[in-house]
Amino acid sequence: MTDDWEQQIKAQIRQRYVVQAGDATEGTARTIEHGYPAELINELPPVLVAAYSGCGYLFAGLEFKGNETVVDLGAGAGLDSWIVASHLTNGTVYSVDMTFEMLEKVNSQQLTINLLPICADIENVPLANCCADLVIANASFNLAISKEHAFAEAHRILKPGGRLVARDLIKEGELPPEILTDPLSYNTSLGGALEEHELAAEMAKAGFKNITVSDHWEFSYVQSVKIEASAR
Asked: pLDDT tens digits, residue range 113-147?
């Protein structure tokens, strides 16, 4: 059971993305700035691109056989989910986000059967154990109140040998006082960022192996990084 503080923070996070879902206008510029190839963006539904809320492109070097089961945790409007689904012929993408208004974006595109939106918290994912070949996440784990639960759930739903590939935010040392004292810092993706060694420790505690953190670049007061790991 979550305490009042956790419920309040999660309510604030939901409200942030409810507002963003209704006023999504700057996503196209952000995707290009964050490394998404322009030719790819031109092929994607504009409504999903406009609502993009991640912290970087995570697909460089990632290949698909076409029959994978993929779970996108904290999927937002589902831009990354859509990209994965376009590579699958017989696979399935579960697009998980706790903000219904964001998921309506991807659901509005009359998707094929291989992309299924699920409104749920990434700390309590309603999917079976060992069901996924790949888990992706983009600026999601930093928003989790309990990193322990979020990484444990990501590990639980992965098949043995499955992979986690994510973009997320890390900090170096203490954040500036103006961020630390801001009661809204958590739901703006800054207050929940861990240091790199803390992030790796939380992942290892959840059972992940072969953890790598790479491609560091400045993102406001923190850094965006690419995270890769294997299950079991």
From this structure: 689 999 999 999 999 999 999 999 999 999 898 99
The DSSP annotation for the chain comes to ---HHHHHHHHHHHHHHHHHHHT--SHHHHHHHTT--HHHHTTS-HHHHHT---SS---TT----S--EEEEET-TT-HHHHHHHTT-SS-EEEEEES-HHHHHHHHTT---TTEEEEE--TTS--S-TT-EEEEEEES-GGG-S-HHHHHHHHHHHEEEEEEEEEEEEEESSPPPHHHHT-TTTGGGTSTTPEEHHHHHHHHHHHTEEEEEEEEEEEETTEEEEEEEEEE-
- Domain assignments of the chain as residue spans, ordered by start: 4-231
Predicted TM-score (pTM) of the model is: 0.87
How many Å apart are CA 157 and CA 126, to the nearest integer? Answer: 9
Measured CA distances, 138 to 5, 97, 132, 173, 227 (Å): 24, 11, 17, 22, 10
Q: Residues 150-185: pLDDT tens digits?
A: 999 999 999 999 999 999 999 988 776 666 555 554
Residues 6+ apart with CB under 8 A from 138: 54, 55, 56, 58, 72, 74, 75, 76, 80, 166, 167, 168
Domain 4-231 has CATH 3.40.228.10: no
Rounded CA-CA distance 70/88 in Å is 10
Q: Rounded to an integer, what distance in angstroms lies between the CA atom of residue 218 and that of residue 186? A: 18
- Nearest Cα neighbor of 55 from 139, 148, 156 is 139
